[in-house]
TrEMBL record:
Cleaved signal peptide residues: none
Keywords for the protein's UniProt record, in alphabetical order: Glycosyltransferase, Transferase
SUPFAM superfamilies: UDP-Glycosyltransferase/glycogen phosphorylase (SSF53756)
Segments for region (Disordered): 1-49, 183-210
Origin superkingdom: Bacteria
Record's compositionally biased regions (Low complexity): 183-204
GO MF annotation terms: glycosyltransferase activity
The protein, known as: Glycosyltransferase
Gene3D superfamilies xrefs: Glycogen Phosphorylase B
Lineage: Bacteria, Pseudomonadati, Pseudomonadota, Betaproteobacteria, Burkholderiales
Length: 575
């Protein structure tokens, strides 16, 4: 990695943390009451240097990483309007003017994935239950970000005083302050590539221009991010990779024209955080997208900023072959990579303890319901409609669910399966249903914001996914008093159903057994009705006030870690 000086300082434009301004998408229709903007700090006006100390230096190879015993092989009820008492409803001390909680996300979309939905719901919980107004940082280039933010806030989905930052928008801020020197464009002479840009009233739009690769015209060889006047502020180059193009380098130039090159997206993101987040604030980073921010603790960010790092595991930490997932590997191979490791289920917590993760670093904090569990009456108790809300992706196993339902239809010919969601496999799945001749019984739908109506029309839920972290759909199914039939995969179904009389757990992959369980509930409405009360009882464990108690402990713990670390002390002893 090449390192030369790269100064960075805050700007005065909205959307950037600065001086004094500023399911699976399942159910984003809540309407909380707007609240006053909480005071806080975000950016320092001091210019910050991104070289040597500033650029992301590789971690010394000689350092012996401590292990945690893991090896590489081995509708919903409406959201209640919240108030923000001085100490939150749990009695937790609110942040001081020099403390900030920052959720580290990848994107913020109107129809987001489960991680985005979980983050938005958590923002509501922090705001209403803890008296903490978190900020959100997104790492993806998104021309529609401000449009999405405004829409989510207008609908009451995102708390109105939640500040949303973006790594790529910081490029415009830094350019406005004269901290970046434009790069020479790589655009071939005579070419006119399309640019993605969406201007906002707040600042000039950053544009992305893609150029085809010389080694394969169907692949992207270069992406340039710049202004409408043609100035290129940052460039990504790509190289041939397995099945496509892999990132080769990210380039920027400082005010003196010196180039800094980053080998990974994570290096770039962490360097931008170090350059643009205020140094006089204690930052409590809560990492939702661990792969993008995996260099956080070993980067200049932790040397520049007084911070704590907490990582949330939204999925299983191992692949089917037992290897650690790339997104989470750093958390287990380097014990200093985070101060707190958060999982959503007791089952995953037990697995991590058994493999050597220190109990002191582990927290079990499930996702919270945005409302109060209640019975949503069906139009008819005889309704034979099964529901599944999930993204149309491979791990959600819609294809396998169709096999299950083919067996169901042999015994219950009038049964109906309705799936809802978005995702890359939606069109292919629809074609599969059409070709099977089952389009009259299996219905593929897009996203729906009226989740309560979907449950009102359904008698039970089914969850055939191959893995989960903690299923928001499964939780909402129980919260609407609908029994759930699910594979007992890691993680989530057992925490929701085991010993709860709320549904039926099936060994993973057993198509016939899942079909039989669905048939049993469809043919015996009274049995299904009995399970509804167990479903509600199970769901009551995940109300906002109960989950907030766990977040309250986390907040106390990370503040204590920051206090012992001392003002602006490095987050780790060695880097």
């Amino acid at each position: 990695m090449k390192h030369v000086d790269m100064s960075a300082a805050p700007s005065s434009s909205p959307g950037k943390a600065k001086k004094s301004t500023h399911a699976d998408s399942l159910s984003q229709q809540a309407r909380p009451a707007p609240e006053e903007l909480a005071p806080g700090h975000g950016h320092s006006r001091e210019k910050q240097d991104l070289t040597r100390e500033g650029a992301l230096l590789p971690h010394p190879a000689a350092r012996a990483w401590r292990k945690w015993g893991l090896t590489r092989h081995a509708g919903q009820a409406p959201l209640q309007a919240s108030t923000t008492p001085a100490h939150g409803t749990t009695g937790v001390q609110r942040p001081s003017a020099t403390e900030r909680v920052l959720f580290l996300q990848e994107n913020l979309r109107q129809i987001g994935n489960g991680i985005e939905v979980a983050g938005i719901r958590r923002a509501h919980l922090f705001h209403g239950q803890l008296g903490i107004t978190p900020w959100i940082l997104t790492s993806n280039f998104s021309p529609r970000l401000r449009e999405n933010e405004a829409s989510l806030k207008d609908k009451g989905v995102l708390p109105s005083d939640t500040k949303v930052l973006n790594v790529y928008e910081w490029l415009v801020d830094m350019s406005d302050e004269g901290l970046l020197t434009p790069l020479a464009s790589s655009r071939p002479a005579g070419s006119s590539p399309a640019a993605k840009a969406r201007p906002t009233a707040a600042k000039p739009a950053l544009r992305k221009v893609s150029h085809p690769a010389a080694w394969d015209s169907t692949q992207t060889g270069c992406e340039e991010f710049g202004l409408a006047n043609g100035q290129v502020l940052m460039r990504k180059t790509f190289k041939p990779g397995r099945g496509g193009a892999d990132l080769q380098a990210i380039e920027m130039r400082d005010a003196q024209g010196r180039t800094t090159t980053y080998a990974t997206e994570s290096d770039f993101v962490c360097a931008m955080m170090a350059a643009n987040l205020e140094k006089d604030v204690t930052w409590h980073f809560l990492v939702d997208k661990n792969k993008m921010y995996r260099q956080l603790r070993r980067s200049v960010t932790s040397r520049r900023l007084h911070c704590t790092v907490s990582a949330f595991l939204h999925s299983t930490h191992r692949l089917p072959n037992g290897q650690l997932k790339t997104s989470y590997r750093h958390l287990f191979e380097d014990a200093d990579s985070c101060d707190s490791l958060i999982v959503a289920t007791e089952e995953q917590h037990r697995d991590l303890l058994e493999t050597g993760v220190p109990a002191a670093k582990l927290n079990v904090i499930p996702h919270a319901l945005p409302g109060v569990p209640e019975i949503v009456e069906s139009a008819s108790l005889q309704e034979k409609r099964v529901i599944y809300l999930a993204r149309y992706t491979a791990e959600k196993q819609h294809e396998l669910l169709f096999q299950v339902f083919e067996r169901v239809l042999k015994k219950v010919p009038d049964a109906q399966l309705h799936t809802h969601g978005v995702g890359p496999l939606q069109a292919a799945l629809q074609a599969r249903v059409d070709a099977s001749g089952l389009a009259g019984n299996i219905h593929i739908h897009g996203y729906s914001s009226d989740v309560a109506a979907l449950f009102r029309e359904s008698s039970l839920g089914v969850m055939p996914s191959s893995e989960e972290g903690f299923s928001l759909f499964g939780l909402e199914c129980l919260a609407h008093a609908r029994p759930l039939v699910a594979f007992s995969v890691k993680y989530g179904p057992k925490d929701l159903l085991e010993g709860r009389n709320a549904g039926i757990l099936i060994p993973p992959g057993q198509v016939s057994a899942m079909a039989d369980a669905i048939v049993a509930l469809l043919e015996d409405p009274e049995k299904a009705y009995d399970l509804r009360f167990g479903a509600l009882t199970s769901a009551e464990r995940f109300t906002a006030d109960k989950v907030a108690q766990r977040w309250s402990k986390w907040w106390t713990d990370v503040r204590e870690i920051a206090r012992h670390r001392g003002p602006h002390a490095p987050a780790s002893a060695s880097h």
